[in-house]
Amino acid sequence: MATVWGSFHRWGADSMKPPLLEMLGEASRLLTLPDGATRTTISLLDTADIAQRSGRTRKEIDILALEHDIVPERYIRNMNALSIKDQITLLQSRVCIVGLGGLGGTVVETLARIGVGAMTVVDGDVFDESNLNRQAISSEQNLSQTKTAAALESILTINSSILIQDHTEKMDGENATSLLEHADIAIDCLDNIHSRFVLEKAAKSAGIPMVSAAVAGYSGQITAIFPQDKGLELIYGPEESLSADRGAETALGNLAFTVSLIASLECAEVVKILLKKDSNLRNRLLIVDLKEHTFEQIRLV
User: Fold this and answer.
1) CB of 2 within 8 A of CB of 12?
2) Given a cut of 90, is residue 56 above it in pLDDT?
3) In this predicted structure, what is the pLDDT of residue 119?
């Protein structure tokens, strides 16, 4: 641990005491991975214990460990697909997920597992029985519970170090800007086209990208929209000319396997954008058809 000392100035003078470093060093262990490589890791229980004893948050301890090449064991299978720097970036990121139904429920659980450190979750609805076929955070036990309360419980069960702001309200033109405050990216898991335009406008105003997805039956679509892009207009036409507010899901239904796949693809795009990797869905629409097992990208111009 001799190389650790020089990096602790940002924690303040009171934090430059050896015990915190010693606790990390004593709790870490060498883990052999399936490919034969080894990593220095630290367990969930040990990071929680160090956080409690040091007065730091769990997320701070996770980041501190990673900065010194100690990988929290919960993230060990993210390596080598992600680098340690990538994992730190995710832990320092905040996403705003609007809509906690089929797509949103899977998105919050996936991003909690991969280690996005802060989430704002927004939905004004409660669960009913028709949600049980596809909405990951719905259950027979939480019918009539607000979707935000269920999302909060689910996220903290998966990753209790994540910081969460939950808003049990419908997003509209009046609150959209405030809901995106401090977010690095907006995630559209909505079920109507008008609200997508509202979120897009707010995201552009905030100067942040938005990843948008929709599902209908065996099919789904995903796109990434940056503040400079025309975005949804290229998919749906001008908002003022919309003939309907709901998409094809009203006629085609929502299937669990389609929802899960599209939500996973949406998360992949979110993670790539947060990590500043190239987005191959910017100004493009990915259309997935699971009946024919086809994936097609359409360039939006």
Assistant:
1) no
2) yes
3) 98
CA distance 138 to 135: 6
| pLDDT tens figures, 70-109 | 999 999 999 999 999 999 999 999 999 999 999 999 999 9
Q: Contact at 8 Å (CB) between 23 and 54?
A: yes
* pLDDT score recorded for residue 248: 63
Radius of gyration, CA atoms only, the chain: 21
Q: Which domains does the chain have, with CATH numbers?
A: 5-87 (no CATH), 93-299 (3.40.50.720)
Look-up: residue for tokens 């789904």? Answer: 220
Element (H, E) at 120: strand 118-122
Looking at every residue in the chain, the average pLDDT score rounds to: 91
Which tokens go with 195?
A: 């609200």
The H or E element containing residue 50 is helix 44-54
Contact criterion met (CB below 8 Å) for 226 and 218: no
- The sign of the torsion formed by the CA atoms of 277, 257, 122, 298 equals positive
Beta bridge partners of 39: 31
